[in-house]
Amino acid sequence: MDTINREVGLIKNVLSPYDFDRLRMHFKNNPILDSMGTDEFGRKLLGDKAEPILQEFSELLLPKVREYFNTKTCVTSYSLFAEYSDETISLEKHKDVNACTYTLDLVLYQGDPWALYIEGKPYIAKPNEAILFMGEEYEHWRETLYNNTGKIGVIFFHYVEPDHWFITEPKEKHDEIRRQMAIERNLS
Ligand SMILES: [Fe+2]
Question: 9-187: what fold?
Fold first, then answer.
């Protein structure tokens, strides 16, 4: 069995300039975002069901994720685009309760860099750079920014091993599993 690389990492030049531009331009100034409201963290989210380009790039990045974490067996789970655009933006301290064993956080566009804290340490990625970490194991958050004037576009690409509940359990059970895990986490 391979030994999984559990280190948090930063990789540069994640995608070729052509691929990165295609992905960035797909989301930047996308009219769908104009009609959406922001959530409690001041951001708008688009999932891979609505945006199949996310799944396409998740597959494209799979070899990089396997190489980084030193696993030959992980597979894509789901991915999510987020655009932080409110004047006050934040991300609460949490561990993921979803299918996020391995996470690749890719920055698409931003004004000033906005650090992602993982287990107390700040990590800063620029466009076409990504932070890699184990989302279910490590606490991560962003410090609240009260005077944001720009738009920060990022994508969370998530991967799991084939024995993860996301793969082994039927889809209709997933919401219940996530709910249970969130309850257990709050109790511990
Ligand atoms: Fe998370």
Answer: Jelly Rolls (2.60.120)
